[in-house]
Amino acid sequence: MTTLQALPARVITVDGPSGTGKGTIAARLASLLGWHVLDTGALYRCVGLAAVQRGVALDDDAALGDLANGLHIGFDGERVLLDGSDVSSDIRTAAAGEHASRVAACPAVRRALWRLQREAVRPPGLVADGRDMGTVVFPEAEVKIYLDASPEVRVERRYKQLKEKGMDANVPDLARELAERDRRDRERSVSPMEPAADAVVIDTSSLGIEAVLVAVLGEVRRVLPDAVPDAVPDALSVI
Question: Is the peptide bond before 124 cis (omega within 30 degrees of 0)?
Answer without folding.
Answer: yes
